[in-house]
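REQUEST FORM: STRUCTURE PREDICTION
Request ID: SP-0412
Submitted by: Lab K.M.
Chain count: 1
Length (residues): 420
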Amino acid sequence: MVELGLWMSIVERERAHLVRQTLELCLGQREASERLGISVRQFKRLVQAWKKQGDAGVVSRQRGRASNNRLAEGVRTRIALLLKDKYPDFGPTLAAEKLLELEGIKVSVETIRQMQVQLGLWKPKGRRAKRVFQVRERRSRFGELIQIDGSPHDWFEGRAPRCTLIVFIDDATSRLTALRFAPAETTRAYLETLREHVLAHGRPLAFYSDRHGIFRVNAKDSKSGDGKTEFGRVAARLEITPIHALTPQAKGRVERANQTLQDRLVKEMRLRAIDTMAAANAFSSVFIALWNEKFAVPPRDATSAHRPWTQTSQALDDALARREERVLSKALTFRSSGTQYCVRTQGPGTALRGARVTLHHFISGAMTVHYKDRILPVTAYGTYPVPDPAEDEKTIDVRLDAIMAAGLGTQAPFVPHGRG
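STATUS: Completed
RESULT:
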């Protein structure tokens, strides 16, 4: 009896205990059956079985037998080989999805998890106490609040240099609205992604981002300027309100999406042998559709908060352009970004001497010079030295990769005099 109790389940122990209580007249059979959630007739059968076999009478007859739904041994062997060779680092859920999608094998996530544990491919995660944050309710309409962030990662698993994925995700629905791979997390990368979002969905009401210098002027003693970054000025032109989070947990929607993307998107690109940013950006629309089909939820209010872009794509490019002012010299020249320019005119152009012009620097790299309501033709005629740009934690990796690609990191090691 003692040995039997060592391998009885909790439910079977409870059954045996209640049967003994009814036989000792401490409990009625109806109350005991209600506690177990079974009928009185089924409980009476348990009593008869216990009288004949003791505790063994309440143990399931299926104990030690193979399940009727057990996979055929050949199928299990094939799944095990695929898990080890093709999907060694896939989680149980994603592995089950890909086995069905690519191999035509339908199997439950729990079965995959158990097989991965047996094969040493999956380590059960122990639960740990987590800091509790107050959950903010989702916004009610699609386009009210778009959370944006950049995720630097080895997206191509060594098949190409590390890069950053710019992520736009809707707060109300968890829909991905735009994805774009870029060498680093820069203002230009966000503006390129913003262009895709506006053309596809329209202008959202607000952006929710961190407090990096791309989105917010962080200098405490900054007195000059308008108090906005270049991205902030573009958002103002498009009538999109920027909101900055105090903590990463505050914008948890995009932070959790980044973690899932670093798992699922990496493996999807591996299966398709994608090894360039251009190919990855071409695949992003396909992946967005797959993501939204699986993870997106319907909004509480079906009315979209996006405001459609009714102008031309060229007008949008102009709204996204970086702008700076210059004053023309007496020779109608000016400097910008290491290049000297001269304005071309039909006549002497005396009216333009000392004129204040506005330069529009487009995402594509092109530039136009605006004076009042017209665009002035210009010619580049020389260059001048400019200081090296300052790098931060978001751009230093791509700068070092460029240095390595130039061959500056492959020189022979230094050998001190008297050695070697």
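NOTES: The radius of gyration is 33 Å.
Reviewed by: T.R.
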